[in-house]
Design brief:
This protein is α/β, with parallel strands linked by helices. It is built from 10 helices and 14 strands. The strands form 4 sheets. Strands 3-2-1-4-5-6-11 form a 7-stranded parallel beta sheet, sandwiched between helices. A 3-stranded mixed beta sheet has the order 12-9-14. A two-stranded parallel sheet has the order 7-10. It is globular.
């Protein structure tokens, strides 16, 4: 299958490229930087990257790329994906997350082709669901509480509108929290794994944390990208699918496991500055619709994900200049 991946140089994009290559797909990636991140040059063997800024609104330029590459599936990963960063830059977040999705869908329409488009949204668009909506299905009301989650919810609505108005072959995935090796330490599990590796290496004296009572549905990124490809193959156009393990992990339990894998004793310090006043206490996915539609099941346990992340940071710290 010929695949086009927007945002391919990001964390999820690299893992998706690896999975698509394993399945024998031919891959072209789009990235605003036009290159793989430092240390991931090996991914260049799997996919060629073309430089393109989705926030530019250049429908014609992207339509030309689509017409030339003739993808059968387009995976739309490009986004400003950090909720905290979105608060600092709401306009930039909306321009890329909603405007970039509009650019892609209009370009797909103008290309004259009918590729399957997988729009990647986010489970955080449900906000802080009431207990009666837990675990969270696609029928839960949308109550986004930051520019990231609101713009992702709007992009899903745009996908539905494009399907109804233009017959665009689009499906929407709503992944809940995901994690795995190579993830930025701006995300909580990667931050914990990195700090444990830093204590082991003598770089830091202790692990500093915020609120560890939060429960999240963490799915391994390698399971997430499998779900995206299955949706490209089997999802129904115009439909939204939650993607998550269905299991909640308390952050304190994740840290406890990392401590059992550590090579030295780990001191933990709760830093009040890291405690966010609006943290959602609980968010777990009901992904039964996805399971029924495409047969997806997670393969990685949270323990394996955490261990792989810890080993990634151990290696990264060894090879750091």
């Amino acid at each position: 299958m010929r695949a086009l991946v927007t945002g391919i140089s990001g964390f999820v994009g690299g893992h998706l490229a690896e999975h698509l290559a394993e399945q024998g797909d031919l891959i072209v990636g789009l990235s605003s930087s036009g290159r793989w991140p430092s240390g991931q040059d090996g991914l260049g063997r799997l996919a060629r990257i073309e430089k393109f800024d989705l926030a530019s609104g250049d429908d014609a330029g992207l339509a030309d790329i689509i017409a030339r590459k003739q993808p059968e599936a387009i995976y739309h990963l490009a986004a400003q994906a950090n909720p905290q960063a979105s608060v600092a830059d709401p306009r930039g977040t909306w321009a890329l997350n909603l405007g970039g999705t509009l650019t892609l869908l209009e370009a797909a329409k103008a290309s004259g082709l009918k590729p399957r488009v997988v729009i990647v949204g986010s489970g955080v668009c449900y906000g802080n669901p009431a207990p009666e909506f837990m675990p969270v299905s696609e029928n839960c009301p949308l109550r986004p509480n930051n520019p990231y989650s609101a713009s992702k919810a709007a992009a899903d609505l745009l996908g539905i509108q494009h399907y109804l108005a233009h017959g665009t072959d689009v499906v929407m995935a709503r992944p809940f929290n995901h994690a795995g090796p190579r993830q930025s330490s701006t995300y909580v599990l990667s931050a914990l794994a990195r700090q444990v590796a830093e204590v082991e290496a003598g770089i830091k004296p202790r692990v500093e944390v915020g609120n560890l009572d939060i429960v999240r549905d963490f799915t391994d990124v390698r399971d997430v990208v499998r779900g995206y490809r299955l949706l490209a193959l089997k999802g129904s156009p115009g439909e939204i699918y939650n993607l998550g393990s269905g299991q909640g992990t308390r952050l304190s339990d994740a840290l406890d496991y990392l401590q059992t894998q550590a090579r030295v004793p780990i001191e933990v310090f709760v830093d009040p500055a890291r405690v966010r006043p609006v943290d959602q206490p609980l968010l777990v996915a009901d992904a039964s619709k996805l399971r029924a539609a495409v047969g997806w099941e997670p393969k990685f346990t949270i323990q394996q994900t955490l261990l792989d992340m810890l080993n990634h940071w151990r290696m990264a710290l060894k090879t750091a200049p």
